[in-house]
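Deliverable D2.4 — example input (structure tokens):
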């Protein structure tokens, strides 16, 4: 069923309460948690409530008005396309090229890591287009969580929300630990010289990194104070960063040896795509920019220019830098911790490693800043729906920023950054990111082809079958690849199914909605292509990472069935009955 959402049609939003303290009512204010008897009754109704939440879909106006109003104060609309573009460039370039290029060139792809970046870049650009349409049409801080609530319902949105939060926490932790590696290089030390070794812990978790924790805390303070001030600092820092990128390319190419490319793809196509899956982490960040839509001045102009511009600049930078690194040093000798600094040292330009290390530190600092801003806004909107404690939705009146959400997210980031090895973090990020991007592409197909009350039953059923076949054929291709299939049989079956289904959707299922301001071109081909590429890259990630992903999903479901389901159900029912829900 289509639910009017939690705003209530004709409901009045009252002055929020529970925003400023940390009492029990700020964490669990809903009716189900006011007594043990109420909670017991809620648990007995879990099946009924789950059925309601699975079929309930929010509305655009609900997300834009009633849900947003639960923060108590508006975020300030003071960002332009220039701000958004540099936020995207600083976050994405900082988080990727200096963190994982050396690792994947050395261990997975060799010089073909350049093509791995191209594959990941194409997948990311397709996702950028999907995000852009949603961000223009539903400009709220919740980003993909809000988009999925509107199109795929509360339950799917919650599963995505948990993975969004995991993506951002782990992304920040990975960049913070890489920050320590380049800081050590700047001081002529090994990264482990600045980490505390605890032999009793597992090898993947026994190098404690206090510097990563300190950097995370400092960046969090900047994110709390002002988004616009952070933006001004960010694009000045970006100009410095791009200058250093140009320096690395020019200086590195003066020491280029084409012989280093002779063994271009030593690990074959499997290594190339395996690296692409991991390097998708390098493009994490543009979705953080979509969470700033609520603070953007001109939606139709600023969001497309900002997001697409950032992704174009980023992809070009990645390919040039990866090619330069592989020309400077044979892939087998590339350092996995501080690849560019060590490469300059190896070719006799010892002084240049300090320039590179400084540039890496600056870029990773701005990357952390943008991730901190984005992750807090995701949590803010999730808390507005009461799937997380509503006190986390509060926006401070003086700073115009979500302080509570920022503090909580960065505290979680600091704990992960303190303990966890970078290789574990990067694979886990890629799974969560690809999973979410795939869901957003599915949601865009639903948005364009289905409107409740307008789309006929026959067209709705055609859409469902088409989406199932697109997902099924994509999974079939990915599974065949992951199983090590060397022949063409699996592809000969799955690829035509994907092509014919997408063509049928294009020709035989009418679009039910036209974007008001900006829309993805070539519908439904681009979202369908995004789905198949994202799913294929998921099939290239190692089994251990999927086990960790599965454990996290189980944790999410336990929380949802015992807390999140009942909180969001009570909030929705209070809104649709004309009552004002307890707000953040």
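Example output (designed residues):
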């Amino acid at each position: 069923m289509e639910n009017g959402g939690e705003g209530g049609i004709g409901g009045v939003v009252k002055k929020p309460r529970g925003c400023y303290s940390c009492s029990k009512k700020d964490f669990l204010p809903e009716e189900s948690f006011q007594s043990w008897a109420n909670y017991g009754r809620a648990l007995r109704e879990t099946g009924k409530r789950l059925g309601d939440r699975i079929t309930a879909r929010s509305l655009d106006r609900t997300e834009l008005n009633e849900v947003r109003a639960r923060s108590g104060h508006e975020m300030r609309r003071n960002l332009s396309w220039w701000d958004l573009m540099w936020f995207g460039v600083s976050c994405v370039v900082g988080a990727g090229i200096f963190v994982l290029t050396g690792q994947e060139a050395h261990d997975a792809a060799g010089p073909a890591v350049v093509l791995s970046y191209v594959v990941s870049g194409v997948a990311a650009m397709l996702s950028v287009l999907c995000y852009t349409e949603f961000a223009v049409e539903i400009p709220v801080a919740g980003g993909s969580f809000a988009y999925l609530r509107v199109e795929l319902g509360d339950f799917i949105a919650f599963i995505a929300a948990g993975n969004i939060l995991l993506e951002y926490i782990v992304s920040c932790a990975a960049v913070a630990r890489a920050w320590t590696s380049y800081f050590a290089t700047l001081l002529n030390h090994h990264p482990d010289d600045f980490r505390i070794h605890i032999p009793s812990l597992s090898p993947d978790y026994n190098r404690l990194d206090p510097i990563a924790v300190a950097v995370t805390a400092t960046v969090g303070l900047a994110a709390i104070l002002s988004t616009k001030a952070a933006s001004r600092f960010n694009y000045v820092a970006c100009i410095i960063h791009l200058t250093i990128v140009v320096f690395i390319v020019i200086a590195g190419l003066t020491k280029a040896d084409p012989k280093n490319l002779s063994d271009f793809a030593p690990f074959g196509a499997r290594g190339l795509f395996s690296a692409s899956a991991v390097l998708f982490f390098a493009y994490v960040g543009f979705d953080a920019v979509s969470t700033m839509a609520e603070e953007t001045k001109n939606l139709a102009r600023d969001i497309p220019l900002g997001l697409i511009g950032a992704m174009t600049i980023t992809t070009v930078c990645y390919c040039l830098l990866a090619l330069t690194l592989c020309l400077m040093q044979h892939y087998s000798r590339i350092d996995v911790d501080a690849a560019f600094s060590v490469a300059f040292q190896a070719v006799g330009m010892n002084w240049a490693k300090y320039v590179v290390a400084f540039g890496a530190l600056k870029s990773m600092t701005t990357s952390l800043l943008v991730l901190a801003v984005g992750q807090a806004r995701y949590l803010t909107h999730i808390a507005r729906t009461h799937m997380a404690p509503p006190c986390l939705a509060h926006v401070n009146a003086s700073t115009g920023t979500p302080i509570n959400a920022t503090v909580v997210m960065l505290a979680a980031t600091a704990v992960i950054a303190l303990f966890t090895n970078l290789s574990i973090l990067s694979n886990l990020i890629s799974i969560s990111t690809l999973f979410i991007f795939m869901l957003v592409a599915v949601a865009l197909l639903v948005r364009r082809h289905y409107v409740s009350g307008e789309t006929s039953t026959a067209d709705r059923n055609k859409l469902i079958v088409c989406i199932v076949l697109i997902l099924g054929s994509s999974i079939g291709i990915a599974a065949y690849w992951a199983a090590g299939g060397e022949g063409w049989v699996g592809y000969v079956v799955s690829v035509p199914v994907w092509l014919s289904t997408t063509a049928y959707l294009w020709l035989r299922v009418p679009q039910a909605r036209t974007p008001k301001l900006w829309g993805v071109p070539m519908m439904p081909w681009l979202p369908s292509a995004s789905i198949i590429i994202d799913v294929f890259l998921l099939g290239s990630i190692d089994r251990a990472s999927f086990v960790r992903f599965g454990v996290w999903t189980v944790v999410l479901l336990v929380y949802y069935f015992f807390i999140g389901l009942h909180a969001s159900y009570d909030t929705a029912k209070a809104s649709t009955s004309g009552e004002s829900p307890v707000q953040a």
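The longest helix spans residues 543-576.
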